[in-house]
Prior knowledge:
Elements: H1 7-16, E1 29-30, H2 33-43, E2 50-54, H3 60-68, E3 71-76, H4 82-88, E4 95-99, H5 107-115, E5 120-125, H6 131-140, E6 145-153, H7 154-161, H8 171-179, E7 180-188, E8 193-194, E9 201-208, H9 219-231, H10 237-243, H11 251-260, H12 274-284
Parallel strand pairs: 2-3, 2-5, 3-4, 5-6
Antiparallel strand pairs: 1-8, 6-9, 7-9
Helix pairs in contact: 6-8, 9-10, 9-12, 10-11
S-adenosylmethionine binds near residues 25, 27, 102, 125 and 127.
Amino acid sequence: xxxxGNPQETIQILQKYDFHFRKKFGQNFLIDPHVLDKIIxxxxxxxxxxxxxxxxxxxxxxxxxxxxxKKVLAVEIDAKLIPILQETLSPYDNVEILHGDxxxxxxxxxxxxxxxxxxxxxxANLPYYITTPIIMQILExxxxxxxxxxxxxxxxxxxxQAQPGTKxxxxxxxxxxxxxxxxxxxxxxxxxFMPRPNVGSAVIRLDCLSRTPIDVRDExxxxxxxxxxxxxxxxxxxxxxxxxxxxxxxxxxxxxxxxSVGLSPSIRGxxxxxxxFAALANELSEPxxxx
Length: 291
Ligand code: SAM
């Protein structure tokens, strides 16, 4: 079996199986060996690693992963790709193919079964239509994770890394930075894929933190406050929180809490960092009178 990762081999295998790209699965296959090398390098895979690959496609990146890792599990949703993967990955004995939707997998059970509960590495050229749900599900699962190295839409990579006060900064920046330290590894133009996506892409590695960078009593409340603040970006922090359907604090409670953490109620949410949102959540999760 020839090594994939170039246009000729990709076209050949697609024709052999009469495979047609399915837009609904976000299928844009990598056809550039330099980009593949960059992803593998960014992911820092060693012979000790168990790698979970999301969406292997025809197995292009999977081949590269198999050559470096101890073991690879590749989860692919499209049934039509399974026989192709069985052929393209046949030279490797350290890979398993799982036909299914990554959002329906129990990642903890995967880490337990394949890596004795030790930290796993996730590597993927993600389907762009569900990038954020996939990343958030993995981060929130609290599964032992070393890193997540993913190809995503360039704007999404920028949002993950963004700092307070910038236009890219938002709920995704805070959510990602609560669990991980992002590192942008490469920008990737559309011509490295087949078919070409109509957006630029980037490879980002999220180094997962063994403990969260801030102390917050009620994580769920903090994330509800974050969502409320960015749902209505043009509104003040006070109005964002008061108008949120997910929260039920009185205006007095909100103003008091914002002032107690040393901020002005007229500040915009986009100016606050994780530390401020945590402080605000801690303030608002104080037991109320009579509770
Ligand atoms: N890894 C391949 C590559 O780099 O050439 C393919 C990447 S393509 C951007 C995304 C892949 O994810 C496709 O193979 C698609 O069928 C698969 N996929 C889409 N949604 C999925 C899901 N919910 N669970 C698992 N795989 C999915």
